[in-house]
Amino acid sequence: MVVDVSRRRTADAGAEPPLTSLRERAAPAAIARIEGPAVIEVEDLTAYYGGFRALDDVSLQVPERQITALIGPSGCGKSTLLRCLNRMNDLVKTFRIEGRVTYRGIDLYGKGVDPVEVRRRIGMVFQKPNPFPKSIYENVAFGVKVNGIKGNVGEIVERSLRAAALWEDVHDKLDQSALALSGGQQQRLCIARALAVEPDVILMDEPCSSLDPIATLKIEDLMRELAKEYTIVIVTHNMQQAARVADYTAFLMMRPDRAGELVEFHDTDTLFTMPRDKRTEDYITGRFG
Ligand SMILES: Nc1ncnc2c1ncn2[C@@H]1O[C@H](COP(=O)(O)OP(=O)(O)O)[C@@H](O)[C@H]1O
Ligand SMILES: [Mg+2]
After folding, report:
1. For FRET with 23, which of 7, 42, 111, 122 sits at 20 to 30 Å CA-CA?
2. Which pLDDT value is given to residue 98?
């Protein structure tokens, strides 16, 4: 992925900046381009459930090894957008999209793309921890076997549990039921299960919404740790959480026709301190939503 570095190059060369970049500077775009490579690119994405348009013309880039947060009021299409990134919405019969989602240059919705492989590389963690009613070990080993991941399964289970900051809690009770773990431990187990199949991107849909504040902070610390190696996209209705963990933040909102619109996308500091759009400002200052 090539990023727009034209302005920087111009500056380096000491030449007059072209007119377009002057205009950009005067009125900075509400949808920023990212620094560094993009793993996923969403282009002009419109999403429908039957006749209902849930998202309208969304474009954004997901930066590699960064955390991108999707925020906005309930019903504005955050989960829909997230699920478009790994074809999770294929399971909804009435769902269809226009526009494009590319993953490392591959059209995710193109012919010959296997949605199962898409979901292995772009894994998902849900709002409510959903471990299988099996042992801790089996929960993590499950996807390894199903996806034919090579290597020693026991080692992969240990590595994944360590990466999910759960090994210390469970190493002496791997054969016990996952359902006996606390909510926060169950969510970290689900993260371990996602990591075991060697993903590239991890999508998280409000992963802390059922957790207490201490378990929430643990997951947030874990996310920061994981972002050294993985690309993460998180939906959160908690603005403080986005401000704490995310490198980039996208603000979505519902229009009067109820279609979700991407209002603003910036690095998190800019979005929270210098929003370009009045609606972003109103939302982050708590005027609605
Ligand atoms: N499976 C579905 N079938 C029909 N409509 C849906 C479905 N899932 C979500 N929607 C609708 O799409 C809109 C966006 O929903 P969603 O993406 O879940 O929003 P958010 O995650 O921001 O709360 C809502 O109006 C919701 O009712
Ligand atoms: Mg949602």
Report:
1. 42
2. 98
Instruction: Report how far ligand 2's centroid is from the alpha carbon of 253 (Å).
Output: 13
Q: What percent of the chain has pLDDT over 70?
A: 90
Q: Which domains does the chain have, with CATH numbers?
A: 26-130+199-284 (3.40.50.300)
Non-local CB neighbours of 84 within 8 Å, separated by 6+ positions? 42, 45, 47, 55, 97, 101
| Beta-ladder partners of 201 | 122, 231
Q: Return the closest-CA partner of residue 173 out of 183, 161, 156.
A: 161
Residue 286: the pLDDT is 87
252 Cα nearest atom in ligand 1: 22
The vertex-115 CA angle with 114 and 118, nearest 5°, equals 95
Whole-number Å distance, alpha carbon 239 to ligand 2 midpoint, is 14
Stretches where the chain sits below pLDDT 50 are 1-14, 17, 19-26
Q: What pLDDT is stored for residue 4 in this prediction?
A: 40
